[in-house]
């Protein structure tokens, strides 16, 4: 990530909508910035006023899946039906201005989609990713519903 260029959090939904080719009404993004020992996780959520229960459920499932990866269990990733957005995560990382997009949960209309790349992710980043999913659930369940939150 270019340290001189930090993306404006309000532009992230527009960036993801552009990449998706459709208006994204809610998204949860977990990404990595930096490399090696200096890498950290950054997260963004914009649940919107009309976030579906399936959006929250996808976030819970991704948190659970990251937990199974931490325990080195060989479980298949969660399946969310035939609805998928074709978003290339390396392109998304370049557009958003981060080093890697780890997971992106989106809601377009009444369809929820997830794209993820946990391959080769260091354990500390995987742990931080799981924490962010937990925080997303707290935001969705608490007073944060309907607002925009940038987690770091």
Quick overview of this protein structure:
The protein is an alpha+beta fold and 152 residues long.
* Proportion of helical residues: 25-40%
In what order do the strands lie side by side in the largest sheet? 4-3-1-2-5
Instruction: Give the class from helix and strand content and strand pairing.
Output: alpha+beta
Instruction: List how many beta strands DSSP finds.
Output: 5
Mean pLDDT: 83
Helix and strand succession? HEEHHEEHE
Low-confidence stretches: 1-5, 143-149
Biggest beta sheet summary: 5 strands, antiparallel
- In whole angstroms, the N-to-C terminal distance is 15 Å
From the spread of the alpha carbons, the general shape counts as: globular
- Radius of gyration using CA atoms only: 14 Å
Helices, by number, come to 4
Strand content: 15-25%
């Amino acid at each position: 990530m270019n340290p001189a260029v930090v993306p404006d959090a309000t532009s992230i939904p527009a960036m993801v909508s552009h990449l998706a080719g459709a208006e994204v009404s809610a998204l949860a993004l977990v990404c990595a910035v930096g490399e090696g020992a200096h890498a950290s996780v950054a997260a963004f959520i914009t649940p919107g006023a009309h976030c579906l229960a399936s959006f929250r459920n996808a976030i819970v499932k991704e948190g659970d899946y990251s937990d199974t990866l931490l325990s080195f269990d060989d479980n298949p990733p969660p399946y969310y039906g035939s609805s998928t957005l074709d978003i290339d995560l390396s392109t998304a990382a370049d557009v958003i201005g981060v080093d890697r997009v780890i997971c992106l949960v989106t809601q377009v209309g009444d369809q929820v989609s997830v794209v993820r790349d946990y391959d080769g992710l260091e354990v500390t980043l995987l742990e931080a990713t799981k924490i962010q999913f937990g925080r997303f659930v707290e935001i969705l369940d608490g007073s944060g519903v309907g607002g925009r939150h940038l987690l770091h």
